[in-house]
Every structure is written in C-alpha cells, then in structure tokens.
Amino acid sequence: MSSLSRELVFLILQFLEEEKFKESVHRLEKESGFYFNMKYFEEKVQAGEWDEVEKYLSGFTKVDDNRYSMKIFFEIRKQKYLEALDRQEKGKAVEILVGDLKVFSTFNEELYKEITQLLTLNNFRENEQLSKYGDTKTARSWMANASASSSVQAAVVTASSIPVPQNQVSVLKHPRTPPTAPGMVDYQNPDHDQLMKRLRPTPSVEEVTYPTQRQQAWSLDDLPRTVAFTMHQGSAVTSMDFHPSHHTLLLVGSANGEITLFELGMRERLVSKPFKIWDMSTCSVQFQALMVNDTPISVSRVTWSPDGNFVGVAFSKHLIHLYACPGSNDLIQRLEIDAHVGGVNDLAFAHPNKQLCIVTCGHDKLIKVWDSMTGQKLFNFEGHDAPVYSICPHHKENIQFIFSTAVDGKIKAWLYDNMGSRVDYDAPGHWCTTMLYSADGSEDSQIKFWDMDTINLLTFTDAEGGLPSLPRVRFNKEGNLLAVTTADNGFKILANSVGLRSLRAMEPSSFDPLRTPIVSAAIKASGSPAVANVGPVSCKVERSSPVRPSPILNGVDPLGRSVEKPRVVEDATDKVKPWQLTEIMDPVQCRVVTLPESTDTSSKVCVGILALGSNGVQKLWKWPRNEQNPSGKATANVVPQHWQPNSGLLMTNDVTGVNLEEAVPCIALSKNDSYVMSATGGKVSLFNMMTFKVMTTFMSPPPASTFLAFHPQDNNIIAIGMEDSSIHIYNVRVDEVKSKLKGHQKRITGLAFSTSLGILVSSGADAQLCVWSIDTWEKRKSIPIQIPAGKAPMGDTRVQFHSDQIRMLVVHETQLAIYDASKMERIRQWIPQDVLPAPISYAAYSCNSQSIFATFCDGSVGIFDADSLRLRCRIASTVYLSQATLKGTQAVYPLVVAAHPTEANQLAIGLNDGSVKVLEPTESEGKWGVNPPADNGMLNGRTTSSSTTSNHTPDQLQR
C-alpha cells in the first residue's frame, strides 16, 4: 500500500477515535491488518469474550502462520475449555474440545489426550499440572499479562511483518518472505495528545521494507556466522566484552556474580574472579542490610577500558569493581565503589579532559562519573524520572558528552558539567534502549544482522541452535568474531573466515602438556555464613588422629521420573586399540555446574540436591521445569535454584552449646524423600522436606549423634550411631530407644542396612566392622578392616551396600574394598597409587551399582568399575575449580560425593570451601570412560595411565 494510503488510514483512525466510534475503530484495525490494539485485545481477554478475541486476532494472524500463532490460539481455546469445565458444563466443554482444540491434536497428540482426560475429573485441578490454577478472573489476568509480553505480539509480528514500538514488543521478527501487509502501531494511549502525536506519521514510525539488491563493496561472508566453538560457563552469561586490541580475549560476566577472562584462540579460561565484597566497612548501610539477607548478586556489565589496561564490572546491587589488567592472565583489585542505591545498570569508560573516568548509571535514576585512579566522584547527573538503563560516552571533535536512556524511554545527553541535560527526547516506543550493539539478539533465538545505513535486514543465523529466546551478543573490535550467549549457560563464538584463521593460529596442539584447562564451574560460594563454616578435613598421607566426618550430601528425586541415560555403544574398532585410562583435565570434556546461593520458591521441580554444612544449616537445590530444562531433571547444563518454601523457613539443626569445630554433621533421607533427619552435635531433628518444618527433635547429647540411617522398611525406625561408640535403635512413633548396640571402641562413622540378609553393618573410627541382626539386634560378627602396612588404623570408615544387597563397599582413607556381606569376606581391594596417590576422602556407588565414585584429598575424582575396582576415569580438580582457587593458599577438595538416584553417570561433590558441584559426562560420551580389559592374572600388574586392583592377603599387605 502506498504511503499516501497509509496516511489516509491514520487520519481515518484519528477521526474515528475522536468521535468515539469504537466498533468502527477496531473493525478498521482488524480489516486493514495495520494496527493491533493490544489494550483492546487485553480487555476482551479479561472479559472472556473468546469469540471476539479470536475474531480480532484472526485479522492479523492465523492458527498455522507460525509457532507463536499456534501457541496463542491454543491458550485461548484451552482457557475457554477450562472455563466450561469449571462451570461443570461438560457438554459445552466437549463441543470446544472437538470443534476448537481438535486441530492441535495433529501437532501434539499426547497433549490432546491429556486435555481430553480432564473430562473424567470432577475438578480439573486434580491434574498435577493444573493444581495451581486459580479462579477464572486470575487465569484471564495471567493470560492477558502473558500475551502482552510475548506470544500475541510474536505471533502478529511474525505473521504480519509489522513494526511495533518498544513498549509493545521488545524485539521485532523480520519476515522470511516479502511482507504482504504494512506496519502496525498501537495508537491507543490514555493521554489524548500523546495519542495524536503517535498517530501522525513521523520518523519514529518507520515502514519495514524487504531488503533489495544494491551495490555493495562487501559480502555477507564478511559477517561472522560460522560457529567456531561453544564454551560452557555453568551460570547464565549476562555480559561480555572483547579486549580492544587483543581480539581473542573475551571478558564474561555471569548471573552468579563471577567474571571470567577467556583466551578464545587457546580455548582457555585464564582467570576467574567470583563475586566477593572487598571491604564491607566502606559500603553503605543499605547495602550491608541487603547482604545480611544473603541477597544474590549478578553481573550487569563487564567492559574493558579503551587501552585494555583496566576492567570495569557493574553488579546488580550497589557495587562496581575496577581491576587492573597488567597481563593477559591476571586481574588485580583496584577500586570498589558503592556507586548506586539499588542496581548498577551500566558502566562505561570515558576520557573527559584526557582523564580516564568511569561512568555509571543505576536504579536510583542517577548517572555518576568517577575518577578511575582514586574512586572520587566527579559528577552526579540528575534529571531522569525513571531508572537509567544504559549509557554511552561519546565525543565529537573536541566535545565530550554522555548519552543516557531510562526505562521510560527518555534519552538525554550530558556534558561534563553540572548544567543538566542538553538533549531530551523520546526513544522509539517510549521504552529503554541500549545504544551500543550492531547485531540484534532477538526473541526467536536468532541473531540478525542489519544494515546500519538503511532499515534492511541483511541476514540471520540461529548459530546451530541452542540459543536462548533473547541471546546477548558482542562483536570483537575487528568485527570478525561474535560472541553469543547460549541457553545452557555458556556462549558460542561465531567467526568469519578471517576470524577462524585468527583462532586457528593460536590453537595449541591437543598434546601440548602445558595447556591450561578451562574451568567451567562458574558459581562460587559467596562467603555467606550458610556455607562459610564448612570446616576442612585433614587429609595428610600419614596421620595420627582421626578425621572428623565431612558434611553429608544426598541426592533427592521426589518424583522419581528420571531414567538411566543410554549407554553409548562403543565402536568396534575400539576393541583392537590398546585400552587407555580416560583422564579429564579440561572442563570442555564434561559438564559441570556449581550450585548457587540465591534462593527461589518455585515449585515446578523434579529433582534436587540436599546438603548439610558443618554449621548445621541444610540447603536444598532444585532444578526447575522450564524452557531451558523441559524435563525438570537434574543436569549440569542448567543451574539449579537454591529452594526455600514460601514461609522462608530454614532447615537448621539445634546447635545450642555445640562446638561446631568438633561437631560431626550427619544426615539421612527417608525412603520416599518426604523427611530428612539430621544433627550437628546437638539434638537430632526430623524435618518435613516440603515445608522445612521441624516435626520433632530427640536424642539430646551427650553423647552426640555421629551417623544416621532410616530402616529401609520402616521410616519410623532409625539407627543412630553415637560419639560414645554405641548404636541406638530409635522408634520415632513412640519416642523411645528400643535397643542399644555395643561393639565398637570409637565413634560410629557408618551404618548400612541389607534387608535381603536381614543385617545392619556398622563401621567406626576404630577400623572395625560389626554385623547386627535386624530382627533381634544381636551382634553376629565383628572384623577389622585390613589396613596397608605402615598406615594407622584410624580415621573414618564408611559402608554402603551394592544394589544386590550382598556385596558391600567399604571406604577408608587408605583403601576401597568390596566385601561379601553374607560371609564378611573381602573380595577386592584398591589402594591409592599411580595417578591417584592421595588419601581417599569419600566414595559411593552409582545408582545402578556399576560404578564407584571416589574423591581424593588432592581434589581428584576417580570413577571405578564396581566389579573389578579398576580405575576407569580420573577427573582432575582443574575441571571444577577456577585458576584463582587452584593458586590459592587453601587446598580445596571434595569432602563428600553423592550419586544421582536414577542417572548412573551423574554425581555431586561437596567441597571443603562450602560449595557443591554437579558433574556429568558430555552427551557425546554418555559415560565416564571405558571399562579396562579383564584381569590378566597379574596381582599387581601396572597398565599405563591406569591403577590396579589389589587382591593381596593380609600377609602380603604387611610386607
């Protein structure tokens, strides 16, 4: 349609609006397909006028136009269906099901069947997924709000190729085919003058034209569109910036507050700085109050100074950090400034009067300029009426100035004086605008390249998939590399041919022994009291005193819906290759995620991890079921949420009068994961896992509890190992100790039930194993574990039954051993050696009992074949620890390991710095290494890069 015709439609709409011809206004909107009136649409949704809602929407898009259209039509018809069910109008519901919803069965038959089954329920809220459905009014409000932010606009814009102001939709979809309808403007506005302004054709309302061929001196091949590689960060990437002159150095900020410097050519993580407060005493009272509540801190902006000598970091609460960067692999703390009240939304460097300054803006509606050398505030710009979203220092000839934009869409320009803003105008759409990027991260998980001289789309790419709906993007200064965030908490590097050559030029040989590994576990403990008290365990090779038990970690799967990952079929050619131990030194060889400290109250979860720290505080992390993780399963691809119930309760043990340095934390889960029992030197507490409420407390010290275990057949029966070496059999229902078992000389360190053998096996710090009948609680047998020559029989001994309930794993710092519990005879033994020489800190069977996960005091993790006790895979600490931690004064290593209850290759480790990591193999590998060849008969044969199973007799051990 011609521009003149478009202007005519504007005038007609203006006239109809002024004369209050409402029906005619909306009819023209719909029939012309020009203007989608979101306010009118929302009103009809709220009123439940579903026929009018569909009729109006159909003027702009059809059900099968695109996935957004299909989604919004489905939601409309589903709501219509649910309302009929809620009114108990089953006949009407069947009519909607057959007439309106049937069309979607061809796309998702299972979903249609599930919707049909709602007819059989008295109340559709009995369906788990609809249990949170409120009343009709609430549901309609939710639909209207959801529509306003996503699906309706996406559907209409994608189908109609209509430009929409920013207050209508945050990102535009460009048509894949030439547009058949001109633009759309939401002209409705409560302010009539503003309405008239926006109805008049002005440069802010531009027509999108389909790209045409024109003469150009460059090619689309110059754009970086080829995926060079992907890096997994472990936490959502929130900001990125390339070094101004070293074009393969990328600075990355994450949602957990950590910043990381990557050398892309080497695929290396050079340095990592987790968030921490450098000097709390210099921070404002408001910020100190926030940190008392353990407020999560994320990175809102990272940026290099123009000369690349400094790094600026803005955080989501109050602070900015300035680092000096004297070399490519070091960041030195320079300045910490409590810059704004609330979030710091943006940070940039500027050179007013040839002085390097830091410019910041924040939620407090202010823009501030700071001296980069002293941290002194130089300017304070006031004038915005809303939080300032973005700043862009610039200069033209000799004039230095700052552009700023706020969330209300106001753009202002400031000179470095105190005379107020020099320019004041509205951004398109009256919404916040970032004045920085030349690539658009769009809502359809694509990257689009635009011609800056026109309004034409040049090309687009989905970067081979895996992008979030709104990816963040960043070019390097040469424009040959493009970093884009991924949905699984990492980023991809896209390159053109020049960029690919620059990356390959720096890429080291895969056999380079000096290569520094990338550390992808990005979420670090913030030093909050909840995790800071996890005490270290002495892990010397020679030791004369027992080790205090570590904090305990357990896997939780409330719904139990996970299934074991399929085992990868080995290629036939592997059978003729000499076996080699799988050694994982680099985070890209597996998947790692660190559990965050921030809390969430979401309830859409399937699986979680429970951890008890030595301060008596238990924490629960859950994986949400969302777009990134539709299954809701535990995965190292997605950062879980630190979960608390809406009540805000914490699961905290009674530690009154307890010396936490000497206390032994212990924990156990009931068989259905409904209850958790724990103690930290004081009373034993029984918690409800859903509400975190204390159900009861019992067994006041002394003596203190040191190990807990639920009876596998009766949650009311609990075995409690004590500090005084006794074992109490306690009945929760009657609040009574039924039996006291005595047989050890030192505190109890392990308990394990076998229902098939009818026994309880206990282990103690005396290196003894005792067997008890679970019918009479009489002792059947007692044997010592066989300690290697030269080692003291001290330290914790732990026991766990194989899934067959016959074989039993015995773990001591000096060995892993497999026993036949029916005879209490040792079958196999492995002693730390070769690539794993350090003392063992913990070990556990995988959920299918085919593997044993063992952790060591040097930070290594070993995966053993559970039958042969042969080492299959070694994971180095460089995989899950940052370079800064590895170079620190405190040795950080796992104190405990827990196996996922259904995923055979997923494990969680709890470290002595209070952090918890989840590790799993990459999807391409599917498992931790390959089983070593069968024993060739050598008792202590050595295989390159492998460790060996030892079947020595006690006499041989003493030689």
Automatic annotation (TrEMBL):
The keyword Repeat applies. GO terms for biological process: regulation of DNA-templated transcription. Signal peptide: none annotated. PROSITE patterns: CTLH, LISH, WD_REPEATS_2, WD_REPEATS_REGION. Residues 922-959 are annotated as: Disordered. Keywords: Repeat, WD repeat. It comes from the Eukaryota. Residues 34-92 form the CTLH domain. WD repeats lie at residues 337-380, 741-782. Coiled coil: none annotated. PANTHER family: TOPLESS-RELATED PROTEIN 1-RELATED, TOPLESS-RELATED PROTEIN 3. This is CTLH domain-containing protein. It comes from Corchorus olitorius.
